[in-house]
Amino acid sequence: MDEQEEREIRARIAALLSEHRDLDDMIARVSERAPFDQLQLQRMKKRKLAIKDQLSRLENMLIDDIIA
């Protein structure tokens, strides 16, 4: 992997971390309101999990393969 690819991956990770935090805040705010939309909440939680999976894949791409 060259430096340009690594910078792109790190930039994508930063963007996903920001989106993950934003979703966390939105989920908290939606949950606080008494009559909240359960479907909307489920969609946000599902998106948050998908972001977490993407983050894991991208972070694994940055780790050099170790030959045992």
What does this molecule look like?
This protein is mainly α. Helices cover 81% and strands 0% of the residues. The protein is built from two helices and no strands. The chain has helices spanning 3-32, 38-62. The protein is elongated and about 50 Å long. It starts with a helix and ends in a 6-residue tail after the last helix.
Question: Tell me about the biggest sheet?
Answer: none
Helix segment count?
A: 2
The whole-number mean of residue pLDDT values reads: 91
Bin the strand percentage.
Answer: under 5%
Range of helix content: over 70%
Kindly report how far apart the N and C termini lie: 20 Å
Structural class by SSE content:
mainly alpha
Shape: elongated
Low-confidence segments, ≥5 residues, pLDDT <50?
none
> What is the tally of beta strands?
0
H/E element order: HH
List the helices and strands and how they pair.
Layout: H1 3-32, H2 38-62
Helix pairs in contact: 1-2
List keywords for this structure.
81% helix; 68 residues
Concise overview:
The chain has 68 residues and is mainly α.
